[in-house]
Structures are given as C-alpha cells and as structure tokens.
C-alpha cells in the first residue's frame, strides 16, 4: 500500500488542531462524567463525541483503514495488516475533568504492523508533536532532534502511581536509582517529555491507544519501547510497557527482574 506520508501527516495535524481548539472550550463546560473500570477511570461526553468525530473523519479520508479506539466507535481489529489507526480522543480524562490541564489527544498510524506516523496534541499548550520514522519528528513546524541517551541516575522517571504504591515490578527500586519521580496522569504529556529528554523513563500499564502514537514518536527519535518481560510489544492488547533511553531500558529491565 503506497501512502503519501506528507499528506497524511498534514491531515493528522489538521484533525488534532480542530480537536484541540474544541477541547479547550469544552474543558470549561459542564461535563457528563461516568466511570469505566474503577472510580479513577473516567469517561465524559466529550471523550465520546471527540472520538466519534475523529473516527468518522478518518473513515472518510481512508475508507480502507481499520481503527482501534478507546470508546468503541472504531472497528474490531484482530490483526495489524494494512493501514491501522489508533485513536485516543482525550488522554488524561481525569486531568481534563479535575484540572483542565495536562491532557492530550492522540492518533497513531501503523502500516502492516509497523509504526508509520504518530501525532499528539498537548491541548492546553496548543503544541502538536508529529511525524514518523521515514519522515522526521516535529513540534508544530520545528523538527525535533533525538534526546541525549541518559542513564537512570541522570534523569527523572514517570511511573504510574498505583504501580509505585504497590511496588509492582520493583518500581520503588527504579525510583530510588533515578533523580526523582514525576507523575502526570497522561501518557501523551509524558511522551512529550520523553522526546525532549525531560524524563528518561515511563513505566505504566497501557492500552493500545495509550501507546500507539507515542511509540511512533519515541522510537523514531532513538528511544526504546519494551514490555516488562522484554517480549515483543503487541499493539492489540494492553500491557505493562517501559519507554525510555537505551541506557535506561537496559537498567530498568535488570531491576524489575530481580
């Protein structure tokens, strides 16, 4: 399948620019808020309406694609053949509801199972991080260079708070070896920090739509994405994922296996 990368990248940026403009306004409105798996797993009417719009627009532009999406407006996808989009309408819904800050919207694109393009908008900052391995990575129009390959003691880490509280996978030992712990509550915001070297590690249980766009951006810039047991990443299931510099991934995998 031959795809015009530049055209698709520009299209993703256009979609997320519209989403970002709308969500800034929506964040100040009254919201219909429900819980999903637990009281800290929220969904709003704006998650649903945003996803429904994105899925509809993508289907109009790329009718032969399949779409994996958080709120159920996409397809049932059983394999990664062809063109597959991953849509996360509001990443960091708790932040969207409680703080009106530090939330994102994300679209990841995979072609025959391989990372192709990714786009993340930091809604409040109105910055879009986008691109892919064969195109380059950009913040709005400015090309992004690869972050320094720092070691664990040199950098800050972001690990999901339930994982740290329960000390799953020796996560507290990982924190103690680092320069400190930061928790933001949005994978999209953390991926932004990783590609600029503000943090050197992200470890969390991620659904496919949480990971897809960030994986494209991070791997394109020389960062690594690994599972907790170092098995191949499966983009069609939720899993514990480690994202970071090459030095950090090696250090953390040794630590979590102890």
Q: What is the H-and-E element order?
A: HEEHEEHEEEEEEHHEHEHEEH
Share in β-strands: 25-35%
Which CATH C-level class of the largest domain is it?
A: Alpha Beta
By CATH, the topology of the largest domain is Fructose-1,6-Bisphosphatase, Chain A, domain 1
State the CATH superfamily name of the largest domain: Fructose-1,6-Bisphosphatase, subunit A, domain 1
Helix content: 25-40%
DSSP helical segment count: 8
Strands of the widest sheet, in order across it, are 3-4-5-6-7-8-9
The assigned structural class equals alpha+beta
Q: On the 0-100 scale, what is the average pLDDT? A: 93
Indicate how many domains the architecture comprises. Answer: 2
Compute the number of strand runs: 14
CA-atom Rg in angstroms: 17 Å
The shape, in one word, is globular
**pLDDT under 50 segments (min length 5)?**
none
Tell me which CATH architecture of the largest domain applies here. Answer: 2-Layer Sandwich
Largest sheet: 7 strands, mixed
């Amino acid at each position: 399948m031959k795809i015009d990368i530049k055209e698709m990248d520009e299209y993703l940026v256009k979609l997320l620019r519209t989403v970002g403009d709308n969500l800034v306004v929506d964040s100040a409105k009254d919201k219909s808020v429900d819980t999903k798996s637990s009281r800290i797993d929220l969904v709003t009417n704006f998650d649903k309406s945003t996803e429904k719009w994105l899925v509809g627009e993508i289907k109009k532009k790329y009718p032969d694609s399949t779409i994996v999406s958080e709120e159920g407006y996409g397809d049932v996808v059983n394999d990664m053949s062809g063109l597959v989009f991953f849509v996360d309408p509001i990443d960091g819904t708790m932040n969207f509801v409680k703080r009106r800050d530090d939330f994102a919207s994300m679209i990841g694109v995979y072609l025959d199972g391989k990372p192709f393009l990714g786009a993340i908008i930091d809604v409040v900052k109105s910055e879009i991080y986008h691109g892919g391995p064969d195109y380059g990575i950009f913040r709005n129009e400015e090309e992004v260079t690869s972050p320094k390959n720092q070691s664990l003691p040199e950098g800050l880490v972001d690990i999901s708070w339930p994982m740290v509280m329960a000390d799953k996978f020796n996560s507290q030992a990982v924190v103690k070896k680092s320069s400190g712990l930061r928790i933001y509550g949005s994978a999209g915001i953390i991926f932004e920090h990783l590609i600029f070297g503000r943090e050197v590690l992200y470890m969390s249980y991620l659904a496919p739509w949480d990971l897809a766009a960030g994986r494209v951006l991070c791997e394109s810039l020389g960062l690594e994405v690994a599972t907790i047991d170092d098995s191949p990443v499966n983009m069609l299931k939720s899993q514990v994922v480690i994202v970071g510099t090459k030095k950090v991934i090696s250090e953390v995998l040794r630590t979590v296996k102890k």
